[in-house]
Prior knowledge:
Blueprint: E1 27-29, E2 37-41, E3 48-57, E4 60-65, E5 70-74, H1 80-95, H2 105-115, E6 119-138, E7 142-152, E8 160-168, E9 172-175, E10 183-190, E11 199-217, H3 231-236, H4 249-258, H5 268-282, E12 284-285, H6 295-301, E13 303-304, H7 306-319, E14 324-331, E15 343-351, E16 355-359, H8 361-367, E17 375-376, E18 380-385, E19 389-394, E20 397-401, E21 407-415, E22 421-429
Helix pairs in contact: 5-7, 5-8
Amino acid sequence: MPFNPEPQCSRIRGACLHSIFVISLACVLIPPSRAWSRTWSDISGSYRIDAEIAEILQSDVVLKTSDGRLVKVPILKLAPADRQFIEEKKMANASKREAQTEPSTDQKLILAAKGNEKYTLTTRPSKKVRATYKYKLTAPSYSASEWLLYAMHPPELPGQMEVLFTMSPPGKKATESAALERSLWFAKLPVQEEKDKKHLECEFEIKAQLYSRKLESRGGGGKKGQTWLSPGERSEYLAPKIWRAHDSPEFGEWLNQAKLKILAQEGQIDFARRIFNHIVKDFRYEYLPGMDRKLMSICESGKSDCGGLSILFTSVLRANDIPARLLFGRRAVTGQASDTYQAHAKAEFFAEGVGWVPVDCSSAIVSGEGNFFGNDDGNFIAFHVNDDITVDVEEGRQLGIVWLQGFGYSARGEGSFDKSSLKEEWIVRR
């Protein structure tokens, strides 16, 4: 989402890192005797501050300066050495907790991280883009009195930062109440002119810095991972959905037959690669309008499109207690009708101690070559993560969205949309 500097409390004033304040949830408290003082720098090296850690949040760190000021900083916007420092302290804090007869969640995560120790993710800036999506709907058999227009607000993710979003006509922002706090922009458009009863025209623009990511062998003495998930995020990225219930007996039987259960000494990344290889070998790509993307339908048919294959991949991981998520958006290249204007879906899974690992099953199947496991060339804009979004846009009016890669709309009026036509444009500039 576009960055909006905001202090943690009213007593914070003018700290050097003012340009990267954010609000976050879930924290690790650092007692005074456990604080670490150092000089901190942002990723560009333009801002520095001398401070100690007051509190480590899920995706932010709260720093305390020598004069008592508190500064909240996104971990991903810090210099690599500072991010590494924070993760080492988080790992050390978790590993020293009192042992229990039954392993705690933290202890299980530490064990999972050890299974991933031979891997690291290398992240590099790919390109800065300005992408414009244009949408023109014509409905000759409908007469609207009001249009409701909406589009997703792209989040900041490891593969995209410094995200700015604008839409025309301008709208209001609404955020879901669930743990992911996904946001959208919506605009109520009362019809003022006769031509607008049957016609809707709008556009949005996304500006972002994209990043490439590559999974590599770490070797001895390599850096540890960047982050951990908050309990709320972990719950969301493990949860089953009604139409892709990875906890169903039918899917459990399919997993047994496909031998897709994680082995006792198998690391998360090695297991995920095994799932990827299985899908690429045994499934094929097929897209049909209105196709069935229910989990068991995909398993039984042995085919689906980018969304369906990503659903299968993430569902296998979730069934094995590994957080995974879907990314819906468009490739960061200008599109045409023949390529569905670059609309695409892919997946990521969270490897403890490493971070979000990118995976694109459908591209691997279609291309027949290339590295699509743990390798992202930084050429994709995610409009949102996961599916099934419910947002209250106003009192008594709620929007439910499966996924959205452009504009969505609803209308008040009379008639039908049977003869409606849609014209889209997706233009990407650097």
